[in-house]
Specification:
The structure holds two protein chains of two kinds.
Chain A: H1 2-10, H2 20-38
Chain B: H1 3-7, H2 11-19, H3 25-43, E1 46-49, H4 51-66, E2 78-82, H5 109-116, E3 120-125, E4 137-138, E5 142-143, E6 145-146, E7 149-153, H6 159-167, E8 172-177, H7 183-189, E9 192-195, E10 215-220, H8 223-233, H9 251-254, E11 263-267, H10 277-292, E12 296-300, H11 308-331, H12 337-346, H13 351-371, E13 377-381, H14 395-401, H15 407-411, E14 415-422, E15 428-435, H16 440-453
The chains are: A mainly alpha, B alpha/beta.
Chain lengths: 58, 464
């Protein structure tokens, strides 16, 4: 719970004590995403650009 | 015709009657406003009803019609807007008390385009707070109730849009879709909803949830009506860097031709697993109808589908928090508990996870582009379940409801939900069709062909 509180505080968000247990319970679920993505063949894959460049889409 | 009869017309039918001089925009808008007055105590689909403005506009449009002048294909058609779209001089709340007094000075690009096409805006529609959830159980403005069973959710986040269209409070509406928010409520309320390709429709003047996943699209009774609305709102917008310059085809012309020979992929994994039994039964029957119409069904696998939902979350939540952070730091108490939790969760996602998700996004898009060389469309149930009850809460329901829709927000592909049947309890089931990038016409053609031989889209909820 302390780690969760610290991460939120790093973003400038304060978590009231009564909300910490619920948020802490979701943390492992959120983090699973990173572990699952790390096993993919991403070596030569750069990030997708957020937006389609004008005139080059399609 | 009496009010329910008028408001149960499709957009295409009403537009045709107006053009032929057999229906006045004033009568049609008055009928919609009567419907709103009668049904809102049951549904709570609207946050703001724009009755006076709508009637004033209808009178002008009626005068123009009498002189043979028609602004466009939506001349005199009552349309509702999810309350995320900027409307000049009219509150735009995003379903939040924080924006209760937010009155934009300009219309969103798509709102201006609807007005140019002759649409009459009848009001601003209730939604999941800030569009960050899939039930439309809004703690501040009240839950949107499903017109097929008012104890159940309308789905979200464009829940008010779907409920209002389903009962004829407006003939069509605009929604937004970041993880399924057009398609999910369309499925749960028994209407047709289209999420176009990312970049096809401007996001200028639309309160964002997640810039790289947000889409704007039409919600209506039929695919033909969605085609009419998409035609009005699609196309380049110099004020929106996310909006593409890709030419917009003639979507009404694209409806014709049937689906004989079309190759429809049916995923083996993920989308057809863990379904409610009746949802699967109804959706598989819809595939049989597609096959009878001449489509070829092909079993396919979508590479990397197992990590796609996690990649979506890893992009959506940080982008959402980036937008909300200044306000959220100061006024977190003003957010509903579920939305607050999601924004707090976003702060736990490390930057490296967001970047990895963007890499996965490229990997998935490239792999699925390959797959879509072998198929023309993909078919799945829109949602694994029908509408849950309002009492069931939000967190778990949202996770289930977005499962089949959010992959196509990651890839930006066009996707449509069409009514394809009902459970024995009378709740609607939706079929999702997904197309190649920029090929909304193929989607609309397949949906239209299905609606020419079925009547599910014609059924109306059991309300007075």
């Amino acid at each position: 719970m302390e780690e969760v509180q610290a991460l939120a505080q790093a973003a400038g968000i304060s978590i009231p004590p009564e909300r910490l247990p619920l948020l802490s319970a979701t943390a492992p679920i959120v983090r699973q995403g990173l572990e699952a993505m790390l096993v993919l063949p991403l070596t030569d894959v750069p990030p997708a650009s957020t937006f389609f460049p004008r005139g080059a889409e399609g | 015709m009496k009010a329910p009869d008028l408001t149960h017309l499709t957009v295409a039918e009403a537009a045709s009657l107006i053009r032929e001089g057999e229906l006045s925009p004033i009568d049609l808008v008055e009928a919609a406003l009567e419907r709103i007055k009668a049904l809102e105590p049951h549904l709570n689909a609207f946050i703001t009803v724009m009755g006076e403005q709508a009637l004033a506009t209808a009178k002008v449009l009626a005068q123009e019609a009498a002189l043979g002048h028609f602004r466009g294909p939506l001349h005199g058609i009552p349309v509702g807007l999810k309350d995320l779209f900027f409307t000049k001089g009219v509150p735009t709340t995003a379903g939040s008390p924080l924006l209760a007094d937010h009155i934009p000075e300009e219309d969103a690009t798509v709102v201006a385009r609807l007005r140019q096409a002759g649409a009459v805006i009848v009001g601003k529609l209730n939604l999941h707070e800030f569009a960050l959830g899939a039930t439309s159980n809004n703690p501040h403005y009240g839950p949107v109730r499903n017109p097929w069973d008012t104890q159940r959710v309308a789905g979200g986040s464009s829940g008010g849009s779907a409920a209002a269209v389903a009962v004829g409070e407006c003939l069509a509406a605009l929604g937004t879709d970041t993880g399924g928010s057009i398609r999910i409520p369309s499925s749960l309320c028994g209407i047709t909803g289209l999420k176009p390709t990312y970049g096809r429709v401007s996001l200028k003047g639309v309160i964002p949830l997640s810039w790289s996943l947000d889409h704007v699209g039409p919600m209506a009774s039929t695919a033909q009506d969605c085609a009419l609305l998409l035609q009005a709102i699609a196309g380049p917008d110099g004020q929106d860097p996310t909006c593409a310059s890709t030419p917009v085809p003639d979507y009404l012309a694209a409806l014709q031709g049937g689906i004989k020979g079309l190759r429809i992929g049916v995923p083996k994994e993920h989308f057809w697993q863990g379904l409610d039994g009746e949802v699967e039964e109804v959706a598989r029957h819809a595939l049989e109808v597609m096959a009878e119409l001449g489509a070829t069904l092909l079993e396919v696998s979508l590479p990397y589908i197992e990590v796609v939902p996690q990649a979506v979350v890893s992009i959506m939540l940080p982008e959402a928090l980036a937008y909300h952070l200044p306000r959220f730091r100061q006024q977190a108490d003003c957010y509903g508990s579920d939305v607050r939790l999601r924004l707090e969760m976003a702060s736990l996602i490390p930057a490296v996870q967001h970047v990895q998700a963007q890499r996965v996004r490229r990997l998935v898009v490239e792999a699925w582009q390959e797959l879509f060389r072998e198929i023309d469309l993909l078919a799945t149930p829109t949602t694994p379940i029908t509408a849950p009850t309002i009492e069931e809460g939000d967190l778990e329901a949202t996770l289930i409801l977005i499962r089949n829709t959010n992959p196509f927000n990651l890839t930006g592909q066009p996707a449509i939900s069409i009514p394809c049947g009902f459970t024995r309890k009378g709740m609607p089931v939706g079929l999702q069709l997904v197309g190649r990038w920029w090929e909304e016409g193929t989607l609309l053609r397949a949906a239209h062909a299905f609606q020419q031989v079925t009547t599910w889209h014609r059924r109306r909820p059991p309300l007075p």
